[in-house]
Amino acid sequence: MHTRSVILLLACVAVMSACSTRSLKTAAPAPSTEIKSLLWVGNSFFYYNNSMHDHAARLMVASGASGLRNSSATISGSSLKWHDVEAYLRPNGVGSVSISIKEEVSFPTHDKLFDGVMMMDCSQCPVLPQLQPLFHEYIAKHSATARKHGAAPILFMSWAAYGSQMTAKVAAEYIKAGKQNRALVVPAGLAFANAIAERPDLDLYAMDRRHPSLMGTYLAACTVVASVYKTNPVGLTYTAGLPDDVAAFLQRIAWDTSQTFHAKEGRGGL
């Protein structure tokens, strides 16, 4: 991703959160097929442009959804090997403190912290020979950890850095890992490629040609909405400040890509 420095960002967004008054159970609940609370585990591809999870949450609010929670655990430049998902899912850890806009502090508790854990590796980790074994090793490890805590593993297929020449290779490895771990795959990388093919005038990349521009983040968030929440983003009023016609185009690409992909590859455990 960028710089050698390591930045750990734990950002939580609660969207009209419905919180239980009961304590966490010691036995892990069964994974849910409905995602109401989602932990995003990844790197700067997630946190660019005020964080992708924030845009996904705002899209879902625009759809009329309520009671959703999103938390993002990201490390700059990281691979999945850097992340301690077990620690993120510890009782009374992530999401255990909430501060309202009126500066009111509360300590919410939940039967389980998250329904899903969505993971993204570094952009080239799935395809570089030295890193590919670690990609599959840690997806398997973190998928098992998520399930132990009652959360469904979800894989976020990233886009190819520097353009679309590696899109097919990256996609193939995420599809393989998804099938091996019975995990839903979010085809964001394919949505990027489809959008570029149809509208090359829209720049989905930031200046470094790796990270997403705001349009890229918005397209990826729409793909998450379509894949994870099974919600059609077409027509939603939240546009992240993009021109209406651009937002409408990205919404359509996200939905069409998701529908085509899941019809062919399935939805893992979801």
Polypeptide structure, described:
Helices cover 36% and strands 14% of the residues. It has one domain (8-24, 32-265): SGNH hydrolase (Rossmann fold, 3-Layer(aba) Sandwich), CATH 3.40.50. A six-stranded mixed β-sheet has the order 1-3-2-6-7-8, sandwiched between helices. The chain has a two-stranded antiparallel ribbon with strand order 4-5. The chain is built from eight helices and eight strands; from the N terminus they run E-E-H-H-E-H-E-E-E-H-E-H-E-H-H-H. The chain is of the alpha/beta class. Helix 5 links the parallel strand 7 (152-156) and strand 8. The chain has helices spanning 44-47, 52-62, 85-88, 132-148, 167-180, 188-198, 214-227, 244-265, and strands spanning 8-15, 37-42, 68-75, 98-99, 105-106, 116-119, 152-156, 184-186. The longest helix has 22 residues, at 244-265.
Number of structural units classed as domains: 1
Secondary-structure element pattern, one letter each = EEHHEHEEEHEHEHHH
What is the CATH homology-level superfamily?
A: SGNH hydrolase
CATH class: Alpha Beta
CATH topological fold name: Rossmann fold
Rg from Cα = 17 Å
Approximately how much beta-strand content do the residues carry? 5-15%
Strand order of the largest sheet: 1-3-2-6-7-8
The largest sheet, given as strand count, sense and whether it forms a barrel, is:
6 strands, mixed
Mean pLDDT: 87
Helix fraction by DSSP (H/I, runs of at least 4): 25-40%
- Give the uncertain stretches in residue-range form: 1-28
| Helix count, DSSP H or I runs of 4 or more residues | 8
